[in-house]
């Protein structure tokens, strides 16, 4: 017997019992993005490897360890996208969407990183991302953060998340700070773990983000990035905070908050939760004013974020926030006898024409009443619509409720659409 082929480790199937939750989350994401005037953009899954090396940074963990990269038949180096922002900027540059324009874009789909799979974090994972281009002022920073706050309210998890914000200043300010931080870390090198020692020379700001308590203890007294800001950077961050205060959005200023990608500057933020065990991030983003130019376009300010859909679904499930999700099937037609089998299909098509949003499954494969009722109940339908010889003669159906306490009733053919509409 040949060996059964399994899914690749870290690349999971989403089964029919789970997709209704995903669809609910995705519909909220789409609706809220639309509420703020953002339009969908769809980019390819495979991009030139150079795109991510130039944008993310060659010495980041993603580029060094995690990308799925291969040479195609022409010898070109290609990569399965590990994140969406770089692809979105590439598309904007390529199609002339960004220079001297304001664009509000969102995207959703699979990303790929070869890291150790764990619950809620996979090698193929799905992100929702949103990017605003062409606005340099702090109002767009605050508005996008407000959009994320609305997402949590819509999903019923706002009391379980905390907003952390920080400013990374300009590239020049960060470079000056980097020198001071490296000098400080060099004096503390014997107290750092191996990962932090490596990052000290490649991406020292990431040492601030270390989860190792001993490293955090060693960082006591480290220079603060904000001490290197000029008046413009301070004013920008203050403007973001003022707008969040006015909107009633609570936040914590975390001066050790950095982002793992090289392209961020000024405002950065994360929404964190402890509802998934150890504190974890469910949404993160910030400003990246230099990336468009870095990837060959004209200088364009930009701000955006991404969130992991798997982690969001896991959080909603663990908090028992999956409620009022419409079943895969609203109504199930049971057909008893050959004439009912033929007439039932005709009626089902008529009712689908009249009630476009109905999820109406018509039984196939024959069987007695008991078998068909069992299938109807398993489908998750709210009602079974029973059609037999007597019903055909009377131009009626018998409606049996499968959920809740309701009396069985007889309904005329032409009244069934009203009944189906009430189920939606």
Topology:
Elements: H1 16-35, E1 39-40, E2 46-48, H2 49-56, H3 61-66, E3 68-71, E4 77-80, H4 85-94, E5 103-112, E6 124-133, H5 138-155, E7 162-167, H6 171-187, H7 194-202, H8 213-218, H9 231-246, E8 252-253, E9 265-273, E10 280-287, H10 291-294, E11 302-308, H11 309-318, E12 331-335, H12 338-354, E13 360-362, H13 369-378, E14 383-387, H14 389-394, E15 396-401, E16 409-412, H15 416-423
Parallel strand pairs: 1-5, 7-8, 12-13, 12-14
Antiparallel strand pairs: 2-4, 3-4, 5-6, 6-11, 7-9, 9-10, 10-11, 14-15, 15-16
Helix pairs in contact: 1-5, 5-9
Strand content: 15-25%
* Average residue pLDDT: 89
- E-strand count: 16
Q: Which class best fits the helix and strand makeup?
A: alpha+beta
- Biggest β-sheet strands, sense, barrel: 8 strands, mixed
Q: What integer value in Å does the Rg equal?
A: 27 Å
Task: Count every helix, treating DSSP H or I runs of 4 or more residues as helices.
Answer: 15
Percent helix: 25-40%
Give a written overview of the molecule.
The mean pLDDT is 89. The chain has 15 helices and 16 strands. The protein is of the alpha+beta class and 424 residues long. Strands 1-5-6-11-10-9-7-8 form an 8-stranded mixed sheet. The chain has a 5-stranded mixed sheet with strand order 13-12-14-15-16, sandwiched between helices.
């Amino acid at each position: 017997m040949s060996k059964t082929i399994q899914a690749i480790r870290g690349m999971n199937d989403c089964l029919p019992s789970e997709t209704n939750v995903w669809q609910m989350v995705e519909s909220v994401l789409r609706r809220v993005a639309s509420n703020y005037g953002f339009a969908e953009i769809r980019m390819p899954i495979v991009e030139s490897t150079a795109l991510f090396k130039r944008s993310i940074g060659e010495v980041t963990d993603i580029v060094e360890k995690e990308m799925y990269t291969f040479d195609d038949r022409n010898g070109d180096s290609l990569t399965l996208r590990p994140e969406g922002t770089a692809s979105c900027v590439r598309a904007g540059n390529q199609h002339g969407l960004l220079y001297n324009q304001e664009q509000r874009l969102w995207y959703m789909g699979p990303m790929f990183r070869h890291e150790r799979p764990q619950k809620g974090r996979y090698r193929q994972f799905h992100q929702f991302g949103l990017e605003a281009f062409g606005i340099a002022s702090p109002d767009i920073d605050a508005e996008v953060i407000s959009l994320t706050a609305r997402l949590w309210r819509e999903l019923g998890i706002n009391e379980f998340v905390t907003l952390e914000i920080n400013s990374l200043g300009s590239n020049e300010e960060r470079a000056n700070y980097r020198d001071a931080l490296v000098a400080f870390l060099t004096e503390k090198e014997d107290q750092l773990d191996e990962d932090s020692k490596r990052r000290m020379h490649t991406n020292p700001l990431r040492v601030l983000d270390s989860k190792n308590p001993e490293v955090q203890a060693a960082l006591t007294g480290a220079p603060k990035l904000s001490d290197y800001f000029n008046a413009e950077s301070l004013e920008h961050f203050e403007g973001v905070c003022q707008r969040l205060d006015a909107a009633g959005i609570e936040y914590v200023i975390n001066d050790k908050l950095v982002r793992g990608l090289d392209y961020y500057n000024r405002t950065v933020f994360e929404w964190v939760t402890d509802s998934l065990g150890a504190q974890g991030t469910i949404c993160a983003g910030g400003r990246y004013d230099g990336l468009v130019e870095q990837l060959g376009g004209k200088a364009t300010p930009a701000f955006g974020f991404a969130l992991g859909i798997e982690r969001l679904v896991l959080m909603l499930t663990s908090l028992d926030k999956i409620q009022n999700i419409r079943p895969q099937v609203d109504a199930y037609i049971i057909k008893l006898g050959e004439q009912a089998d033929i007439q039932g299909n005709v009626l089902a098509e008529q009712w689908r024409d009249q009630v476009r949003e109905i999820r109406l499954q018509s039984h196939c494969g024959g069987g007695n009443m008991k078998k068909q009722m069992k299938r109807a109940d398993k489908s998750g339908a709210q009602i079974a619509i029973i059609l037999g010889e007597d019903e055909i003669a009377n131009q009626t159906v018998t409606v049996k409720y499968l959920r809740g306490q309701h009396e069985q009733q007889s309904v005329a053919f032409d009244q069934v659409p009203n009944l189906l509409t009430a189920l939606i």
